[in-house]
Design goal:
509 residues, alpha/beta, 6-stranded antiparallel beta sheet, binds 2-acetamido-2-deoxy-beta-D-glucopyranose, metal-binding, carbohydrate metabolism, glycosidase, signal, alpha-amylase
């Protein structure tokens, strides 16, 4: 057979269209501003439909068991997307997807995804590459964006073997040469940034081999890889694990190569230190705010004036605090519901995180009041979700749903503006954002019965009626001095003009 050039060209174009990966929209920081993220651990979120083993990891205190795979998969996530969607989330953060070391260690195996063996293969415990593509597509079909967790600092551990020998490194792909790794040392001083970047995390028995991210092969391989990963699977953002363990300049081209919104993990309370990373990636997790808020809201004796200080120092230290990833819980920190049993305090913390400047992240299980008992920490704060039967009727699930619905009603200016402090004292922190007045406190279940007059500063006219979106029968009328008279009872309040809620179906309006 003979084809004309024209026909060949048409055929080639056709093949290209058929075989080309899904067109990627490459979501930017600006597009992420108004999103709300649900953080899930793939192994712990949902098992594959028809292949469930509900007993597995149903006893979260069985420590050997929960340090191994519990059976969650990509197809499991697909089957439970409505559980996430119905709570009002429009983005998920999934744990790392690459193939892990399967070696047994004294702390189990890499079910969490942070112990890579081959960065070009997909973790077979979670499904096939096509299963992962199906997950992203199914999420996009429901307008849920997908942020993938990625690691560039280290590979997975091999128990009681000395890293950086030929015999050791041959297990990894593509980093199978000794000079792809730093000479072995365990991090000994977190105040010495050189030590933090050069040496290994992990324990003496199970160090995580630390990649030489100054080695040109390692650097270019990572830039190619992140570009491939995001395009191949059509991800909308990356969450960068152990970001502070690699020199900052490495991230400039890494994040550029990804082509999407990036958010780095720097688990430190110092705004200046964490803020310096925002020059090298779009955003970071809001750790400085987190360390304050978890204490301020869980401890009725903590002094809320510290909230003002941290907000100010964040604004001075970050390029843009409005895209920081804010959270109450994650898989690395003690569960809030373990610090305190008081659900009123939990609701105050959740309200603050969902409405303060930033992109809120709610970690799986918060909605089910998981406590991470007995310690609240790793490994117990990584509970499987199936023992809850994915109930959508728990008070916390519904509470989150209400605030997320409210986030869908406010104008875009809500997400581009900075909050303005409206009231502060030892127990109360209140702020205005757009036309919303958000009042939080750390009284918890001890109702203080306080009457407060909060200055309106001209945000609302006299006579304007504000409804508490969290308790629809509570309405407040702006008084003749343009102020807001409120009764403080310990519960958070989200007050918004009734007029602006018309047609939203919030509070039946
Ligand atoms: C860990 O697993 C890799 C890959 O299966 C293997 O080559 C290596 O020998 C194992 N290491 C140990 C210490 O068992
Ligand atoms: C290292 O990986 C490369 C690329 O996959 C491969 O060609 C090479 O044979 C590997 N070297 C060793 C020592 O396994
Ligand atoms: C700082 O933030 C602004 C607003 O989000 C953004 O346009 C700008 O690119 C950021 N600058 C840097 C250096 O990241």
């Amino acid at each position: 057979m003979k084809f004309s050039t024209q026909k060949l060209f048409t055929l080639a174009t056709l093949l290209l269209v058929i075989t080309a990966p899904q067109f990627s929209l490459a979501r930017t920081a600006d597009e992420w501003r108004a999103r709300t993220i649900y953080q899930l651990l793939t192994d712990r979120f949902a098992q594959a439909p028809g292949q469930e083993n509900p007993q597995l990891c149903s006893n979260n205190q069985n420590e050997p068991e929960i340090r191994h795979y519990c059976g969650g998969t990509f197809s499991g996530i697909v089957s439970k997307l409505d559980y996430i969607k119905n709570m009002g989330f429009d983005a998920i953060w999934i744990s790392p997807v690459v193939k892990q070391m399967d070696n047994e260690t004294e702390v189990g195996v890499g079910w969490h995804g942070y112990w890579a063996q081959d960065i070009y293969q997909i973790n077979p415990h979670f499904g096939t590459p096509d299963d992962l593509k199906n997950l992203v597509k199914a999420a996009h079909d429901k307008d849920i964006w997908v942020m993938v967790d990625v690691v560039a600092n280290h590979m997975g551990p091999q128990e009681k073997k000395t890293p950086r020998t030929d015999d050791y490194v041959k297990a990894y792909n593509p980093f199978n040469k000794t000079d792809h790794y730093h000479v072995f040392c365990l991090i000994s001083n977190y105040n010495d940034q050189g030590n933090v970047e050069y040496c290994s995390i992990g324990s003496a028995d199970d160090p995580l081999p630390d990649l030489d991210t100054e080695n040109p092969f390692v650097v270019s391989e990572y830039y190619n890889w992140i570009s491939w990963l995001v395009k191949e699977f059509n991800f909308d953002a990356i969450r960068i694990d152990t970001a502070r363990h690699i020199r900052q300049e490495f991230w400039d081209d890494f994040t550029k190569s990804s082509g999407v919104f990036s958010i780095g993990e720097i688990p430190d309370g110092n705004s200046g230190f964490v803020g310096s990373y925002q020059k090298h990636m779009d955003s970071t997790l809001g750790y400085p705010l987190y360390f304050k808020l978890q204490n301020l809201y869980s401890n009725p004796n903590a002094n809320m004036y510290e909230m003002r200080d941290i907000i100010n120092s964040n604004r001075n230290s970050f390029n843009d605090t409005r895209i920081l990833g804010n959270f109450v819980d994650n898989h690395d920190q003690e569960r809030f519901a373990h610090k305190t049993q008081d659900k009123v305090l939990l609701r105050n913390a959740i309200t603050f995180v969902l409405l303060m400047d930033g992109i809120p992240i709610i970690y799986q299980g918060v909605e089910q009041d998981f406590t991470g008992a007995p310690t609240g920490n790793d490994p117990f704060n990584r509970e499987a979700l199936w023992p809850t039967s994915y109930s959508q009727t728990t008070p916390t699930y519904q509470f989150i749903t209400n605030i997320n619905a409210f986030r869908k009603v406010v104008p875009q200016s809500f997400f581009t503006s900075l909050s303005i402090e409206a009231w502060i004292d030892e127990h109360i922190y209140a702020f205005v954002k757009d036309k919303a007045l958000i009042i939080t406190s750390n009284y918890g279940g001890n109702n203080p019965n306080r009457d407060l007059v909060i200055q309106g500063n001209g945000v609302w006219p006299t006579g304007e009626v504000l409804v508490n979106v969290l308790k629809c029968d509570e309405k407040i009328t702006i008084d003749g001095s343009l102020n807001v008279p409120v009764k403080i009872d310990g519960e958070p309040k989200v007050l918004y003009p009734e007029n602006n809620l018309k047609g939203s179906r919030i509070c039946g309006l």
